[in-house]
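INFO batch 0412 | record 1 of 1 | parsing
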Amino acid sequence: MGRPDRRRSVLFAVAIGLAVGAALIAASFLSSRSGAASEPPGEPTQTLSGVAEVTRVLDGIPQDGTALGRAEAPVTLVEYADIQCPYCAQWALGALPTLVEEYVRAGQLRIEFRGLAFIGPDSETALRTALAAGNQDRLWQVLELLYANQGAENAGWVTEDLLARLTASAPGLDPEQVVADRESSGVDAQMAEAQAQAQASKVRGTPAFEIGRTGGALRPLAVTSLEPAQFGAAIESVLAE
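INFO prediction complete | emitting tokens
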């Protein structure tokens, strides 16, 4: 496979002090996704994509802040992601539903989201909205819908119109409270903590993953593609420990 030609979308040296020469966790990711279409800044979208599918995938799955799945699940998978990263969207819309159906629903896996905002202003607005929804244990609905409606990097696609329609579509979520919480000290603290965790784990690109027994030490999970099978094999390996 060739080297990535859009490294800037996965580097965040300014955000966490890492070297600007860092590459994606796997070069093979590039061939599997074409660029997402963008909207002109400020132009409202008439159709919100993914609502039915996101509702189906997440229906009945417990959430606790940034965590998806039962607290007592034996395996934890951590994802570091920037919501504007197209490869993060690829994983979220491709592999995640399979992992939810096969492992999260069965009580074997919990998934933790650690959000970063290094690509640009739209990244931070989107992340703050998702974390604010997490205060109501609805982060994953908002996160998945953001990925399903992702535009081109820093094209102004994270509009107030999009966020209002998106949060209104999430069952059990109070959109007004999300707006009130976006700039809160609690959201600030969560963003700072995720950034510190990424730096401590030497994360150099997104999406990046860690895996291990719940409550124990996590280790980096190096993958060569974003297909569900690679993650399934890693989960089975931890379950067998």
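INFO post-check: The first helix runs from residue 13 to 16.
INFO record closed
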